[in-house]
Amino acid sequence: MKTYKALEQTFCRIAAVNGALAMLGWDQSAMMPDGGARARAEQMATLSVVRHDWLTDPALGERIARAETEAGKLSDWQQANLREMQRQWSHATALTPALVDARSRATAACEMVWRKARADSDFKAFAKAFRPVLDLTREVAAAKADAFGLSPYDALLDEYEPGGRAARIDKLFAELGGFLPGFIDKAMAKQAKAPAILPLDGPFATETQRAVGLRFMKALGFDFNHGRLDVSLHPFTGGVPDDVRLTTRYEEADFTKALMGVLHETGHALYELGLPKAWRDQPVGEARGMALHESQSLLVEMQVCRGDEFLGWAAPILRKAFGGSGPAWEEPNLRRVYTRVRPGLIRVDADEVTYPAHVILRYRLEQALLAGDLAIADLPDAWNDGMSSLLGVEVPDDRHGCLQDIHWPAGSIGYFPTYTLGAMAAAQLFAAAKAQDAAILPGIGKGDFRPLLRWLRSNVHGRGSLLTTDELLQAATGKPLGAAAFKAHLKARYLS
Amino acid sequence: MKTYKALEQTFCRIAAVNGALAMLGWDQSAMMPDGGARARAEQMATLSVVRHDWLTDPALGERIARAETEAGKLSDWQQANLREMQRQWSHATALTPALVDARSRATAACEMVWRKARADSDFKAFAKAFRPVLDLTREVAAAKADAFGLSPYDALLDEYEPGGRAARIDKLFAELGGFLPGFIDKAMAKQAKAPAILPLDGPFATETQRAVGLRFMKALGFDFNHGRLDVSLHPFTGGVPDDVRLTTRYEEADFTKALMGVLHETGHALYELGLPKAWRDQPVGEARGMALHESQSLLVEMQVCRGDEFLGWAAPILRKAFGGSGPAWEEPNLRRVYTRVRPGLIRVDADEVTYPAHVILRYRLEQALLAGDLAIADLPDAWNDGMSSLLGVEVPDDRHGCLQDIHWPAGSIGYFPTYTLGAMAAAQLFAAAKAQDAAILPGIGKGDFRPLLRWLRSNVHGRGSLLTTDELLQAATGKPLGAAAFKAHLKARYLS
After folding, report:
1. Matching PANTHER family, A to Z (chains A, B) (predicted)?
2. Among A415, A429, A430, which residue's Cα sits nearest to residue A479?
C-alpha cells in the first residue's frame, strides 16, 4: 500500500506539470501575442522534459512493478489507476529520449513548412519536410510495437485510443463504408425534394453570438466557476478538469458555425468537468480516450443540438437574440440548415453523413503510408482518387486535398479513426440514454438538460479511465461499440 | 568557459520555469475562475519545488565556485551574470527546504485570514495568523543574515533591492522626513488658493477607458506584439519580457484612476520589454531590483503623465474619447485633478507628496516588528500614532489602518522602502534625461515619447542587472541615489 501511495504522489506531480502545460497551451492559442512564441516554446519544452524525466525514471518502473505484486489489496479504482500508470509509463519508456527529441523537432519543423505549403498548395515543399516525420513516426511505431507486442499501426493508435485495434476498426468501417454511399444518395434525394433552405441574414454581432453561446453552455450544465469561453483561430477544449477552457471563432456573417462549434466543445468540456473528483490528478481520473471524448462532443452537437427537440427550444431564443423573424427563423428551416447533407472537400466543414468518408480515406492512407505501401509522392493521387470514389468530389488542388489537416504534419498517425468511432459511440450512448430515461428527450425540448447530464455523469464522465472504452459502452448500452446505432440515427434523421 | 556555459544552460531552464510560473500567476489573477484555484495551487507549488531543487542543487554551487575561479576569461556581462547566479543561488540555499515550506504555508494561511480580517477590521484574528509568519520571517532573516554577514533586516531587503541597506535608507528617509511635513503644508496652502477642481462627470464606458489606455500605451512605446492589457482586481505587471501582461481595473464613475493605473503599469512594462535581448533567460538579463522597477513606473506615471506637457497633449484626446467639454476638460483642471495633495489613510490612493509618509511609517514599524522592539499586539496603536504625527490623520479602524496592505501577511518585510527609493530614483533619472536630451520634454508635449524611451532604453532598461542600482544611477545621472531631485521635482510642481 505504501508503494502504491508513493506512486499516487508521483503522478500527482506529473498531473500538475500536465496541467501547467495545458494552461500554457491554451494561453498560447487564445491569449498570447505572436512575440511571446519563443519564450513560450522554452517554457513548454522545459516542462515537457521535466515530465518525461519523471515518467521514465527507472525507479518509477520498479515501483509500479512492486505495486503490481500487491495489487490484490487495492480497490477496483486503485487497480485501474495502477494499470493506467503502467500504461503511461510504458508509452513513455518505449522511446529513447533521442527519438522523442528528434520526432519533436521534425514535427515542429514540418508544421511550419506545412502552414505555408498548404496556403501555397505546394505538395513538393511539404513532402520534403514530411519525409523525416514519417520516418521517425515509423521508428516510434516500431519501438512501441516491439514493447507492446502490437502491430506498428495499433501501437500508434493505442496512444489516442487505449486498446483500440485496426482489426476492429476495419470491420466497423467496412460496415459503414458499405452503408454510406447508398445512404448519402438517398438522403440527398430526399433533401432535394424538401423546401429550399432560407438564408439567415446577418451580420451577427460577435458579442451577441458569444452571449447566445454562453446561454446554451449554461443550460447544458457548463459550470462557469470551473471554466471559460474565449476565442482562438482553431477552436478546441483545453485546460484541466477543474478549469476547462473552451474556444471558438466567430464569423459576423454567419452565426451558425460558431454556435455549433461552442456546443461541440461544450460536449468535450462536460466530459472533463464530470471526471471523478475523487481521482483528480491521477491517471484513472483522466478521460478514457479520444473515441469517447469525441463521442461526448458529438453527442451534444450531432445527437442533441442538431435534433428537433433542441432546435425547437433554441429557435425562439435565436430569433430574439439576433432579431430574426419569418420562416427562415422557424425550427423547420433551422433544422434544414443544421442537417444539410453536401459532399465536400474539407473534413472540418463536413456534415455528419459524409464525415465518415473523410475519416475512412485518411485511415486507409495513413496505414498505407506507415506500412510503406504508399509513397509520399503518390499521396495526392491516392487522396484525389479516394475523394472521387468515396464522395464523388473532384479535388482541385492539394490545399483542398491532402494538405488540409495538421495531423500528419504533426506526426499524428492513428488519430483520425477516433472521430468516427466517436460518432458511432455518440449514437449508441444517446440511444441508450433515451431508452433508459424517458425524461431526457422532453427535457431537451424544454431546455432542461439535467436528465441528460445526469445520465452522462453516471454512465460516462464519472467513470474516468476505470473501464476500457468497450467495457464502458457495454455497461452503459449493453453492447460493445458498433455501427448499428449510428446507422439507425442517420436513417431516422435523414430518411424519415 | 565550459563550466560557465553549462551554468547558462541551467539558468535558462530555471528562467523557463520562472516564466511558466509568471504566466500561471497572471492567469490566476486575470483569467482563472475561482474553481480553478486548487489545481492552480498544485501546478504552481510543483513548479516552485522544481525550481528550488534546481537552484539548490549542490552541483550548481560547485559549478558556480569553479566558474568564479575562471572569471577573468569572461566578458563584463558574463561576469555580472555569474555574480547574479551566485546571488540567486545564495538566497535559495540560505534557507532549508523545511523553512521555505513552513513559511510558504504560514503566509498562505495568513493571507486567507487577512482577507477576512481586513474586511471585518478584526486585528485579533489577524494577529493570531500573523504570529507564525513573523516568527518564520525572523528565522529567514536570521538564516540569511548569517549566510551573507548582514543585519537581519538588510538580509530581507536584499531580496527585493539587491545591495540595499537600511543605514543608507535611514539617511535618505531622514532627509525626506525632515522636508515633507513642512512641504505638505505649503503645497496644501497653495492648492487652497487655486481654483476649485471641477468634476469630470461620467459614466465612462469601460470599453472607452480601455481604448484610451491602449492608445496611450501605444504612444508610450508599448509593443502589443509582446504583451497585452487585461483586467484584474489588483492591477499589476506580470508575464515575461517577451510577453508582458498588464492589468488594470475600471470604475465607470471615474476614468482617472484606471487611466493613471495603466500608465503606471506601462512604466513597469517598458522596463521589462526593454531588458537586454541578448541576455534573455539569464539572471543578468533581469530587471535590477524593485527600486529601479518602481522608478520606471513612477517615472512614467508621476514624472511624465501627471506633468503639464503630457496633460496638455492628453486633454483633447480625453475630451474627444469621453465626449467631455468645458473648462473641466481643459489641461489646467486635469492637472489639478492629477496633482491634488490630500493626506489620507490609504497608501495606494495617496498622492506623490504624501506617499513617502506612508512608506516611512511602514519602514519603521517593520524594522521594529522584526527586531522584536514592537509586539504584534501593539501594532495598531503604533500605526495610528504614526499616521497622526506624520500625516495628521486619525485612523478610524484597522481596516483603514495597519490591515490595509498585503505585504506583511504575505511575509514581505523589506519591500516597502523600495516604493520611495523608486520615487527618488524616478525624479533623478527624469531630471537627468531632460538635461541630456532637450527633445524629451517637447516630445512628450506632442505625444512623441521616442526620445524619452530611447534614453531609458540605453540608460536603464537595456542594462538589465549589469550594474548595481547605484552604479546605474551614477552612470545615468552622475550621482548615486539621493533625495535632491525628488525634492526639487516636488517644489517645482507644487510650489511654483
Report:
1. CARBOXYPEPTIDASE 1, METAL-DEPENDENT CARBOXYPEPTIDASE
2. A429
Residues A50 and A48: their CA atoms lie apart, in Å, by 5
Under CATH, what is the fold of the domain A120-496? Answer: Neurolysin; domain 3 (1.10.1370)
The reply to whether CATH 1.10.1370.30 applies to domain B102-496 is yes
Cα(B92)–Cα(B76) distance, rounded to whole angstroms? Answer: 24
Q: Which of these is catalytic: B84, B159, B161, B265?
A: B265
Kindly report, residue by residue over B466-490, the tens digit of the pLDDT: 999 999 999 999 999 999 999 999 9
What CA–CA distance (Å, rounded) separates A462 from A478? 18
Whole-complex ipTM: 0.94
Contact B249, B231 (CB under 8 A): yes
3-state helix, strand, coil in chain B (%, to 5): 70, 5, 25
For residue B54, the chain A residue with the least C-alpha distance is A50
Region A165-182: what's the mean pLDDT? 96
| Segments in chain B below pLDDT 50 | none
* Stated pTM of the model: 0.95
To the nearest 10°, report the CA torsion of A401, A403, A408, A410: -150
How far is B401 from B381, CA to CA, in rounded Å? 10
CA of A413 to nearest chain B CA: how many angstroms apart? 30
B315, B321, B324, B330 alpha-carbon torsion, rounded to 10° = 0
Helices (H), A404-495: 417-436, 440-445, 450-459, 469-477, 484-494
Non-local (6+) Cβ contacts of B173 within 8 A are B356, B360, B363, B417, B420
Is-catalytic flag, A139?
Answer: no
Q: Phi/psi at A227 (nearest 5 deg)? A: 170, 175
Q: How confident is the model over A75-132, as pLDDT tens digits?
A: 999 999 999 999 999 999 999 989 998 998 899 899 989 999 999 999 999 999 999 9
Note the pLDDT of residue A3.
Answer: 95
- Judge whether A383 and A189 are in contact, CB under 8 Å: no
Asked if the C-beta of A15 comes within 8 angstroms of chain B's C-beta atoms, the answer is yes
Give the Cα separation of A188 and A200 in Å (integer).
Answer: 22
Q: Phi and psi for B239 in degrees, rounded to 5?
A: 85, -155
- From the list A84, A159, A265, A309, the catalytic residue is A265
CA-to-CA distance for B152 and B371, rounded, in angstroms? 8
Dihedral angle over CA of A197, A199, A205, A211, nearest 10: -30
Q: Which of A43-47, A263-267, A269-273, A290-294 has the lowest mean pLDDT?
A: A43-47
**If you ran DSSP here, which 8-state letter would residue A262 be given?**
H
Q: In whole angstroms, give the CA distance from residue B481 to residue B165.
A: 12
The Cα–Cα gap between B40 and A429 comes to 33
With CB atoms and an 8 Å threshold, state whether A226 touches B31.
no
Beta-strand relationship, A243-248 and A227-231: parallel
Specify the pLDDT at position A1: 83
Q: What pLDDT, on the 0 to 100 scale, is given for residue A216? A: 98
> Are residues B439 and B381 in contact, defined by beta-carbon separation less than 8 angstroms?
no
Measured CA to CA in angstroms, residue A396 lies from A123, A326, A407, B59, B63 at distances of: 13, 38, 21, 61, 61
Nearest in space to A469 (alpha carbons), one of A147, A174, A169 = A169
Question: DSSP characters for B118-153?
Answer: HHHT-HHHHHHHHHHHHHHHHHHHHHHHHHHT--HH
- Cβ-contact A446, A313 below 8 angstroms: yes
- Chain-wide mean pLDDT for chain A? 96
Instruction: Give A36's contacts in chain B (Cβ within 8 Å).
Output: 226, 239-240, 242-243
Note the pLDDT of residue B6. Answer: 97
